[in-house]
Fold:
Amino acid sequence: MRFSRNIFCSSVLALCLVACSDESAAINDAFVAIFSSSETFNESSSEMSGNSVVSSGDALSSENLISSSSEVEATSSTAVSSSSVSRFEGIVFRNGDKKTAVQKSDIDSVKTQTAGRFWLVMRDPLNQKETESLENIGIYRQRCYEGYRYYLYDYNGPSRDDLGYMCLCLMKAEKDVQKSAIDSRINEFYNSFDADETVAEGIVWESRDQKTVVKRFGDDSLMTQAAGRFWLITDYSLNKEARASLEAFGVETLSCSALHTESLDMGICFMKGARDIQKATMDSLIVGFYNTFSVDDTTKLEFDYTGAHWVFEDVSFEIVVGCWEDVPMDACKEIVKTCKGEDAALDRSVILSTATRETIDCLLSNKDVNRVEPVRYGEPTVID
Structure:
């Protein structure tokens, strides 16, 4: 009797395995598409649609990302009783007005990066040696970002220490290139994906309510930097040797800082040239030369007259005046006095003064003045 019962149980088990074999294969295929071989995951799961897997070339709307994530979470909660399933669907980048989920290159089906502009994702910043190596195969750096996931990118799934801080560079390829060739030339390569056409090719610089797109030298039709004030953008910090070499050509370095536009990992310097200089000359002197463009010191500045005190023509109020860095503070003070500013006084790097509308309008049009703002305290002075 015991032998017959065993035969019966074995027969039932065999029938169940045959009935479930197709569904089990589909589940295993879905997990292979989502996870790389280097990750460790709990393989317990129920049915999961392959549509929740996103390759590096797919652009997602925020609604699709939310619905896809919700579907995976709902499936996991019903299938797992004793342990939770960890899923990592890729790093999510904002690509123009869309969002793109990018998986690691070793599990991405797209093995070739097409010509044109694309985003390069890696764990370490792109250094000079790597930049030059990529240039040898026709790939050129446009601009780079780096930062933590909370402001540069995001991802669905559990916390990942190895992907907590990433670097993102906008690149330009002359022709199609194998991703393996890119991987062999940079450290900690994650993946690459096509740049959306809405992404500006150059750096967007905003000054005096005007936006300027600054492209890398080579794509810029302006080959000469005119004398006077100008901005210099570089991939790396401007070293002492480069500053000394520029001085020999009549270019003075006034100040340098990080370029904070959209967390951009580049440098910008305020320069002044005694005469016109060829950009090719600066390119030969500066490691990581991006481009230069003239400072806008001719467009009239704006002033906030929305405060209640400024509705009266016969009222004066305290203002803050800042001049360009190449203007000595004593000269800046004289400019304020020339525009009929009263009680002009030096306060660190700015000038404080009592001014009327006439004084303010005069200062707003002066090319040596870079800032005019109202002081937000005190009471107005009524002019008799």
